[in-house]
C-alpha cells in the first residue's frame, strides 16, 4: 500500500522555482508538500544574474540578510568586440523595486537558503529522493504517485553538502517506498525535462541552440571584483566572465563543433581556457559542466488542476540572465492565485490569468535571450565587424544609446490583460503607468523612521491612497490603515488617486480616490474577496 498524503498543493521539483513557490504557498496558510527526485537542493553551475524583482521576493521570504552578503550587488555588463574593444557598457537604471536592477549570485547558495527557509515552515512537508511517476486528474483533485528511494524524506543543502564532500546527486541507497499525494492543485516546477509536461502531453515549441558551452565556477580568485560581467564577443572563442564575492568567478566558453566536451572540461583544459583572463595557479575549480541551451516555450501553462512553472514552462539561453528570474515570477504569480482560489477568495478565472500574464512575457524573454546569443556567439568575420559598427554607432543617437546602455531592451513585465483593470476615468495620464507593473519599493517615512514600502503592505490585497503633501495611506483587506510620507516623491504623479495592489505587489488598477469602490468592483468578479475589502475596519496602525 502506498503511503498517502492529503494536501492543498503539491509542488513537484525543488529548484529555485519550486522552493520559492512552496515557501510562498506555505506562508499563505495552505498545507503544502514538495517532492524532489534528488536527495537535496541543487549544486550545479547555473544562474548567476538576479533581477531586482527576484531579490524583492527573496527579501519577502526573509533570506536577503544571508543571501545579500554572498552577492555582488548592483552590477552591469560590458561587451567587448573584435580586438578586445569595448562596444557597449550597459547597466540598469536607478533601483525602482528597492533592490538593484542586476546583481551576481550563486544559484546553489540561493537554493540552499530557500531550502533552509522551507524547513522552517511547519505546514510544508519536504520529500527528497522522491520522484513523481504517475499523475491522475479528477474533477476536484489530483493524485500524484511517487517513489521514494531510501529512508530520507528531508534533503540536505546541496551547496553546503558539496563543500563538505557529500554528493548532492548521489543515488540514495535503500528500499523503494510508494507514495501517493492527493492535492487540490499541483504546481509542476520539475525543470526543462519536466516529467509532468510530458505526462500531460503538453508540447514545447522552439529549438535547441547548436553551440555547446562549458561553464566553470572558480573559487579563491584574488583581487577585488569589478562590478560588471564581461562578454567577450571577439570573433574567436566567445566567452563570458562574471565576478562574484569572496573570490568566486564564473567563466563560460563556447565550444567548437570539433571539440569534445569531456576533454574540454579537464583541469588542464580549463586552465588553458582561463589563462588569457587570469593567473590560474591560485584558483580552485568548484564546479564545471558542459551545457546546450534551448529556446522553447510550453504550449500551455495549465491543464485542469496542474500548472507548469519555471523551466518546465520555458527554456532560454542564459545570455539575458532571465531563466531563473522568469521562474521566480512564475512561482509568485501561481502561488498567490492558488492560495486565493483554495481559500475561497477568488474563482478559477484568476488561475487562467496566470498563463495570460506569464506566458507572453516569458516568450519575449526567450526571444531576447536568443538575440543576445546571436550577438555574442557570432564568429563570422564580416558579420562581427558589422555588428561592432552597428552597436558602437548607437552612441550617436542619444535615445537609442540610452535604450542600450540603460538595458531597456530587457523589458520588465507590464500586464495589460490578466488580473488588471484599465484606469478608471479621471486618473492623470502619467499615473496610469503604474497599472500592470510591479509597485515601486521606495524608502518611506513613518513617525520619523525610514521604512521600506513593503514593510507597510499586509498579506493579501492592499490599497494605497496618494494624498496631497506626499502622504500615502495604506489600507489592507481588514480595513486597517497606516500613513507614510513618500520622501522621494515616487508617487507624486498619482496624487489624488488610489492604487489597488495585488498580493504579488503588482498594481491591479488605479482610480481617482473618490472612486475607489469602482476599482474594487472591476476586479471582484474574479477576486471575490474584494467585495468585502476593508469592511472589517479594525482601526489605524500608525
Ligand atoms: C550556465 C547557465 C547559466 C544560467 N544563468 C542564468 C542567469 O544568470 N539568470 C537566470 O535567471 N537564469 C540563468 N540560468 C537558468 C536557470 O538556471 C534556470 O532557469 C533555473 O534553474 C530553473 O529553475 P527551475 O526551478 O524552474 O528548474 P530546475 O532548477 O531545473 O529544477 C527542477 C527540479 O525538478 C526536479 N525533478 C525533475 N523531475 C522530477 C520528478 N519526476 N519528480 C520530482 N522532482 C523532479 C529536478 O531534479 C530539479 O531539482 C542559467 C542556466 C545555465 C545552465
UniProtKB/TrEMBL annotation:
SUPFAM superfamilies: FAD/NAD(P)-binding domain. GO terms for molecular function: 3-(3-hydroxyphenyl)propionate hydroxylase activity; FAD binding. Signal peptide: none annotated. One of its GO terms (biological process) is 3-(3-hydroxy)phenylpropionate catabolic process. Keywords: Oxidoreductase. Residues 6-368 form the FAD-binding domain. Pfam families: FAD_binding_3. This is FAD-binding protein. It comes from Glutamicibacter arilaitensis.
Amino acid at each position: 500500500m502506498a503511503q498517502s498524503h492529503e494536501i492543498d498543493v503539491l509542488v513537484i521539483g525543488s529548484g529555485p522555482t519550486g522552493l520559492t513557490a512552496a515557501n510562498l504557498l506555505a506562508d499563505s496558510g495552505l498545507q503544502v508538500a514538495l517532492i524532489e527526485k534528488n536527495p537535496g537542493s541543487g549544486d550545479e553551475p547555473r544562474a548567476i544574474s538576479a533581477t531586482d524583482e527576484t531579490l524583492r521576493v527573496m527579501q519577502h521570504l526573509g533570506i536577503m540578510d544571508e543571501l545579500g552578503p554572498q552577492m555582488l550587488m548592483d552590477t552591469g555588463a560590458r561587451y567587448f568586440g573584435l580586438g578586445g574593444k569595448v562596444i557597449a557598457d550597459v547597466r540598469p537604471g536607478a533601483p525602482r523595486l528597492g533592490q538593484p536592477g542586476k546583481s551576481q549570485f550563486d544559484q546553489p547558495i540561493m537554493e540552499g537558503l530557500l531550502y533552509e527557509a522551507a524547513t522552517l515552515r511547519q505546514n510544508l512537508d519536504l520529500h527528497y529522493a522522491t520522484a513523481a511517476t504517475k499523475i491522475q486528474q479528477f474533477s476536484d483533485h489530483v493524485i500524484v504517485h511517487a517513489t521514494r528511494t531510501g529512508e530520507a524524506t528531508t534533503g540536505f543543502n546541496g551547496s553546503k553538502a558539496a563543500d563538505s564532500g557529500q554528493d548532492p546527486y548521489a543515488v540514495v541507497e535503500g528500499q523503494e517506498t510508494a507514495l501517493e499525494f492527493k492535492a487540490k492543485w499541483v504546481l509542476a516546477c520539475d525543470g526543462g525535462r519536466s516529467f509532468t509536461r510530458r505526462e500531460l502531453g503538453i508540447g514545447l515549441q522552439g529549438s535547441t541552440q547548436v553551440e555547446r558551452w562549458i561553464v566553470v565556477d572558480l573559487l579563491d580568485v584574488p583581487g577585488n571584483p569589478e562590478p560588471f560581467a564581461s562578454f567577450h564577443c571577439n570573433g574567436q572563442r566567445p566567452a563570458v566572465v562574471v565576478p562574484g564575492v569572496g573570490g568566486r568567478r564564473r567563466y563560460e566558453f563556447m565550444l567548437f563543433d570539433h571539440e569534445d566536451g569531456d576533454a574540454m572540461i579537464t583541469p588542464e583544459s580549463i586552465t588553458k581556457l582561463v589563462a588569457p583572463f587570469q593567473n590560474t595557479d591560485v584558483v580552485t575549480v568548484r564546479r564545471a559542466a558542459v551545457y546546450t541551451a534551448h529556446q522553447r516555450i510550453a504550449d500551455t501553462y495549465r491543464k485542469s488542476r496542474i500548472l507548469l512553472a519555471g523551466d518546465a514552462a520555458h527554456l532560454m539561453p542564459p545570455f539575458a540572465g532571465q531563466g531563473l528570474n522568469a521562474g521566480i515570477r512564475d512561482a509568485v504569480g501561481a502561488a498567490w492565485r492558488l492560495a486565493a482560489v483554495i481559500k475561497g477568495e477568488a474563482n478559477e478565472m484568476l488561475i487562467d490569468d496566470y498563463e495570460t500574464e506569464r506566458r507572453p512575457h516569458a516568450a519575449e524573454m526567450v526571444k531576447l535571450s536568443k538575440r543576445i546569443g546571436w550577438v555574442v556567439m557570432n564568429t563570422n568575420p564580416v558579420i562581427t565587424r558589422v555588428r561592432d559598427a552597428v552597436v558602437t554607432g548607437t552612441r550617436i543617437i542619444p535615445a537609442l544609446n540610452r535604450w542600450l546602455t540603460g538595458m531597456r531592451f530587457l523589458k520588465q513585465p507590464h500586464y495589460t490583460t490578466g488580473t488588471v483593470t484599465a484606469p478608471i476615468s479621471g486618473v492623470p495620464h502619467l499615473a496610469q503607468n503604474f497599472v500592470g507593473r510591479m509597485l515601486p519599493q521606495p524608502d518611506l517615512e513613518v513617525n520619523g523612521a525610514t521604512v521600506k514600502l513593503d514593510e507597510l503592505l499586509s498579506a493579501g490585497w492592499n490599497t494605497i491612497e496618494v494624498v496631497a503633501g506626499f502622504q500615502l495611506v495604506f489600507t489592507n483587506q481588514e480595513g486597517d490603515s497606516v500613513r507614510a510620507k513618500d520622501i522621494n516623491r515616487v508617487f507624486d504623479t498619482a496624487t489624488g488617486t488610489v492604487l489597488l495592489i495585488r498580493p504579488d505587489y503588482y498594481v491591479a488598477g488605479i482610480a481617482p480616490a473618490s472612486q475607489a469602490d469602482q476599482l474594487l468592483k472591476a476586479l471582484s468578479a474574479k477576486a471575490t474577496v474584494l467585495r468585502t475589502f476593508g469592511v472589517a475596519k479594525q482601526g489605524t496602525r500608525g
